[in-house]
Amino acid sequence: MTQTGESPLLRVTNLAAGYGDLRAVWDVSLEVSAGRILALLGANGAGKSTTLLAILGLSRVMGGSIEMAGQNLNGLAPYDRAKLGIGLVQEGKRVFRQRTVEQNLMLGGWTISRPRRQRLKKAVARAYDRFPVLADRRHEPAGSLSGGQQQMLAIAQALVPEPRVLMLDEPSAGLAPIIVSEVLGVISELRAEGIGILLVEQLVDASLEVADHVTVISRGRMAWSGARAAVGDRQDILDAYLDSQPGLPASQ
Amino acid sequence: MTTFFSALSTGAIYTLLALGFNVVFVSAGMFNFAQAQFMMVGTFVSYWVAVQLHLPVALGFAFGLVIGFSLGVIEERVAIRPVLGKVAHAELITTIGTGIILDGLASLLWGTQPFQVPFFGSITPIKIAGGYVDPDEVIVIGAAVVVPIALEVWSRNSLLGLACLASSEDRQAAMVRGINTRRVSLIAVAAAAGFAGLLGPLIGPQTYAVYNIGDTLAITSFVAMAIGGFGSYLGSMAGGFAVGLIEQFSVRYLSAEYQNVILFGALVILLMLRPAGLFSSARVRVV
Amino acid sequence: MAATASPAMTAAPRGPLAGYRPVHLAVVLLLIAAALPWMGLNALWVREAEVVAIFTLIVSGTNLSYGFAGELSLGQPAIYAVGAYVAGYMAIHDANDLLFTLLVGGVAAVLTGLIVGIPGLRLASWSLAMVSFFIVLLVPDLAGMLQQYTGGFNDMTGIPSAELFGQLLTPGEFYVACIVVAGAWLAFERNLVLSRHGQMIRVLKESPVLTESLGSPVYWMKVKVYVLGSIPAGLAGVLFAYYDQFLSPTTFGFDVAVGILAASVLGGAQSIYGAIIGAALLQVGPFEFASFQSYSLVVYGAMLLIGGLLLRDGITTRARAGLTWVLTRWPALAVVDPTVPHLMPRARRPADSGVAAVGGLAELLRPGASGPAGQETATLEIEGVTRRFGGVQALGGVSMTIRPGEVTAVIGPNGSGKTTLLNVISGLVSPSSGVVRLGDRTLSGHRAHQVARLGVARTFQTPVIPVGLTTAEAVATSRFHGDHVGLLPTVLRTRRYRAARRRDQQAARTALSVTGLTAQADATASALPLGTRRRVEAARAIAAAPRVLLLDEPASGLSEAEVASLGRLVRAVAAAGVIVILIEHNFSFVLSTADVIHVMSVGEIVVSGTPEQIRSHPETMAAYLGSGPRAEAGSGPGAAGAAQATESTEPAL
Questions:
Q1: Alpha carbon separation from C542 to C25, C507, C562 (Å, rounded)
Q2: Architecture label for domain C403-418+450-644
Q3: Which of B194, C78, C196, C414 can pair with B68 through a Cys bridge, CB separation 3.0 to 4.6 Å?
Q4: How far is C298 from chain B, CA to nearest CA, in Å?
Q5: Domain for residue A21, yes or no?
Q6: Cβ(C359)–Cβ(C509) under 8 Å?
Q7: What number is the ipTM of this complex?
Q8: C182-223 pLDDT, tens per residue?
Q9: Looking at the partner chain, which of A148, A175, A177 has a beta carbon nearest the beta carbon of C630?
Q10: Where in chain C do CATH 3.40.50.300 domains reside?
């Protein structure tokens, strides 16, 4: 299922977005291609989360366009966009804490087309294969899992309907470095299945280890964009990233 | 013993109403006052079908279901969706208003006197364990045991049931998973309304068809929910039967006037000592 | 939920009656109303007006608890019944002085309110509605049970006319009494709503969290407001007993409850004088429920439904624009404004403009900074605080000593536990283990409002500003408990109250000037832009003269100039002796403002030090960039090892 990544699955053009009257994103463009990871970096408040939410229709779009597989998403409700194959792993390990692991995975499969029961069974089984620790705790409430396990569950849940594009909002937040490596490792492997990945992160170095393409957002606008190979000693990325994080020591 | 059976059968009615309230509460996160009036509508529908249209009594089930469901859809669209989440408690006012309109329409169409609703089966009392119970009471009690259990199982195992639970736990996360939370609310309100209408031929024989029965039923089933814990289907069952028992035994051993006072006292004690109820899913915030 | 359309009061054209306030118009109307029988109003209309006065009382009580505090009660008819029966009984048994019966009726109403409110408010949202609805059901039962007193279902008859000081009141005099009682209650309500108490009630409606953080226990405040709203229902009952001289339990049923609710909604639940309109509507034509028509229920239900639907946006923007236009010319007409009447703010207080901004920041902060005698160098100690949420360890053993006189910053990436730590200190969240102490007082384990009263003030990541307050009023709400004036002195506008109010204004003025918000003092606070609202929160926290100031991302959304002045402000506050803790993402701001910086990651502090030390520390980079020594197992300062031990001992995850 791999593609060369030339025709993008998800294309965002000159996006302006925010909440109510407040604009958080002024002009952002990006493309997500199958089998590739685009890392969207930026300091806190730069507009990364707003961009992701806008793609799914959960924040207010004030300009620009969003297209998934050539289809313009304007006016579609979030649940309809999910049906088009856009998956989102929200910030903060947002699983349904009162439901069990298994129930969470089943809920992930809500948008699976018929025959749903069989497909869902297979998808859940595949999730347990990929994340064995979830299999061990399948009947426990999700809220009782550790932070790293909840993050794994959130990713597994988003993968159940076999999305074509998977967006992740700061999957590293609140996780110890070893766990962060594990999580990013899993994300990296998803490439082989032809999924296009949009990874939003605060941790520059960790995400550079898995990215194919990098975009840095600063104060709602693009500050740097290019292939991973072009990053070099990452100084220019850091400069762009740190623009709205002044004072953070640039040398390392 | 007969008192005991009466207690169970009135308690069953409270349970069934509490279930309707809870289904909406769990799925849409709100309290639909008019649910009690949907039950009242159900009793009138079965009266209308059986006595005024002279159709087989059992058709009352179908008519009640359809009419209840339709009213639920209308209410959700007109009175609930526009205000839900926008202003604090606005849906309290609009659903109370809807309920009162239904009361008013019933009194306009049929007047204020109670009407007897015939039962589709036999009316000879059955003797069990030294007490007498009517066949319709038996069925109602059975329903009040079977339905909560079925709902409990369904909500945790079926995908739609899980979607309802997920919608009320975290609406945005549910939308991200592709769940149409608006439609979930609509289905919950309409299904609960249809269910209440469906019960008309069963509870009508006991409660009679009276235009304002919804008001008192709402209060007693609220107490049932408080006892069982809001959001819990099994709790509705426990609470409903508990209220039925409290009522009947206070009537028996004291007098009719004390029934409500004692129930109120029980409610006060419960709210002070165990406000989250006995089987709580702890969704309603304890202040 | 933004309130009014125009944020600031610009110099709008003023009409000829511009100097008069709603209350002036209300007083004039009241006097005219009282004189009506002698102006030729016939007896029938006099009786109608009495009924309107009686219902105004009940509806107004509903408005107080629903419109202002957000708690819906349906039990007014029962309290009304209690007042009526108590008065009727006393009157029949020769204790017939009107003032006396009013007093006893009021007390009975308070007791009933407590019986309903204390359990009813234990659960959120509609439980008060249902519990109060229940007591309406109880009225006939109780009347029956207490038959010997009430006449039971056979009704209480033969209630004599009211007396005052031994003289029987003529019908005209009774009419005036009704008007006076209704007017007195409305005056009480008005003075309550337009006071510091009233502002706290608005805070209560807006956000329980903010209410607790400002020092008020939410539950007891709700009970208080509810009980206050019960009093007029009891007074109305007393008057009704004399009005009809006959009481039957059927008078106090559900239809009355519904009618009252409809009147409240239509007249405007947030209006002080709207209760009169609503009550009047209950008497007019198709709505009149004394003659209970068969279509009345449908009409009431529709009124509730439509009223509830309209409430969702408040008054439509177009209507509001029209209203604003009218009210700038005739501000007295705000008497009928169904929404919170803040269209005419400080124009009505010429005396205030002469009050100079006193003393400056140090003066403002002194009471908090020094605290009770001998506490001047009290430090904030955090010892071994942990916090789990389900399976997630949000804080894994945090310890720090925070000293007054220096700015302490806590920084770290998302998910590092900074906000949880702040919530633990302010008491919104209790630690799973560990202790927080201020001097020799233990803070942890106390409820948030108790912690607030011990001198801890905070801001929130998403600002919480109640609707219906000007910026100056919003800022002053933090002083409510520290400089407390009781309910009665407040309503009576005693000297004590007015002095406290002046101190509020001075403190607010100072706080606003140091946060650069003087120009917005009279603007509607909730309509301000996000960055400005953050500054309002900071001003509010400072105005409380706290001992500990917690700032949650105060610089977010501010321009560079604003950030610079925020930095100066924070340093000045610390210099005045306050303990200042700052959570921030803006690095340069932190480096230039803080004296001590703690870097957190995954629920623990990984490094602490001065800005110079932190600036180039590898741990800092690692925490933010996900690189460097910490990503390699075991190397780096000891704290890194501790961080890795945060996750459980399971090998893979």
A1: 38, 9, 17
A2: 3-Layer(aba) Sandwich (3.40)
A3: B194
A4: 4
A5: no
A6: no
A7: 0.91
A8: 999 999 999 999 899 999 999 999 899 999 999 999 999 999
A9: A177
A10: 403-418+450-644
